[in-house]
Design a protein that fits this description.
By secondary structure, the protein is α+β, with helices and mostly antiparallel strands. The chain has 2 domains: 115 residues, Aminotransferase class 4, branched-chain amino acid transferase, N-terminal domain (D-amino Acid Aminotransferase, Chain A, domain 1, 2-Layer Sandwich), CATH 3.30.470; 165 residues, D-amino Acid Aminotransferase, Chain A, domain 2. 28% of the residues lie in helices and 29% in strands. The protein contains 8 helices and 15 strands. The strands form 2 sheets. Strands 7, 8, 9, 10, 11, 12, 13, 14 and 15 form a 9-stranded mixed sheet that branches. A hairpin with a 5-residue loop joins strand 14 and strand 15. The longest helix is centred in the C-terminal third of the chain and has 18 residues. It binds pyridoxal-5'-phosphate (PLP).
Length: 296
């Protein structure tokens, strides 16, 4: 549990953090969030997370209210106040209290909350074994602008995750309304074919993950091709490796997928593949370079 949280300009003990019962985040799911990782007391790719949140705030008509707020400072101050080095941070912004049904009024004051909690990653054995996933019966919407933003209206992900957990699986994979692979409930998905990566395009109804972007950068540096293409569920059998990405898990090998018909598809040899492991190493090195302060 975080001890000190940032709420609307102040650092306060968690027990004193109170939000209005009439906040439109609570009433209508009218809000956004970012989940980030800090290493060595520094937030990895904070700028990318803030950019995504700011872009999304524009889509939701919340940009004006956030304009004067230094969200980056709020995040770093929260981390420092809790004296945390390795942490998970959650930045939440919501529309705040508005007297009427959500409208276009620009003069609302958003609610801004930052919480940081100590984080230790899953043990190496979990990464060595890899995750299992199941095809969800829920669908992402490729034509909805809401698919591309990380909003507090998060029920699709929550329900898909519950579905996977009930089936004894680690993650759920969602198709879009056209029946194409989109992403995990809280992660993006990559496959490996030959020496290149294959991943669904943003237009398939996915969240453009910060980690997804980092993996694509790393792949280019390592001369690993990246193909953003539509993937049919049937096409998954051709892949030799798969992995999931998000800011907290980083790169998690995906070793099997339970299909809608109940049959389990083993990916490649059923264990983390060579290219996945190369990218995991490169990700770890990049995090060290950018957060340890040893290289500039
Ligand atoms: C639906 C969904 N897709 C993808 C991701 C991965 O995003 P990121 O790499 O920015 O953490 C998340 C993160 O929680 C998510 O909720």
């Amino acid at each position: 549990m975080p001890e000190i949280v940032y709420l609307n300009g102040s650092l306060v003990p968690r027990s004193q953090a109170r939000v209005s019962a009439f906040d439109h985040g609570f009433l209508y799911g009218y809000g956004l969030f970012e989940t980030m990782r800090a290493y060595h007391g520094r937030i990895f790719r904070l700028d990318r997370h803030l950019q995504r949140l700011t872009d999304s705030a524009g889509i939701l008509g919340m940009a004006a209210g956030l304009a004067g707020i230094d969200l980056g400072r709020a995040c770093t101050d929260t981390l420092a106040a809790n004296k945390l080095a390795d942490a998970r941070l959650r930045l939440t912004v919501s529309r705040g209290e508005v007297p009427s049904f959500p409208g276009v009024s620009n003069d609302t004051i958003p609610t801004v909350l930052v919480a940081a909690t100590p984080y230790s990653p899953p043990p190496p054995a979990v990464y060595a074994q890899g995750y299992t996933a199941g095809m969800s019966r829920l669908r992402r919407q490729s034509r909805s602008v809401l698919s591309e933003i990380k909003s507090t209206s998060y029920l699709l992900s929550v329900l898909a995750k519950i579905e996977a957990e009930r089936a004894g699986l680690d993650e759920a994979l969602l198709l879009n309304e056209r029946g194409l692979i989109a992403e995990g409930s809280t992660s993006n998905v990559f496959f490996v074919r030959g020496s290149g990566l294959v991943t669904p395009p943003v237009a398939s109804g996915i969240l453009p993950g910060v980690t997804r972007g980092v993996v694509m950068e790393l792949a280019r540096d390592l001369a690993i091709g990246v193909h953003e293409v539509d993937i049919k569920p049937d096409g998954m059998k051709q892949f030799e490796e798969a992995f999931l990405t998000n800011s907290v898990l980083e790169i998690m090998p995906l070793v099997s997928i339970r299909k809608a018909d109940g049959e389990t598809l083993t990916i490649g040899a059923g264990q983390p593949g060579k290219i996945t492991r190369r990218l995991m190493d490169a990700y770890g090195e990049l995090v060290e370079r950018e957060t340890s302060g040893k290289n500039g």
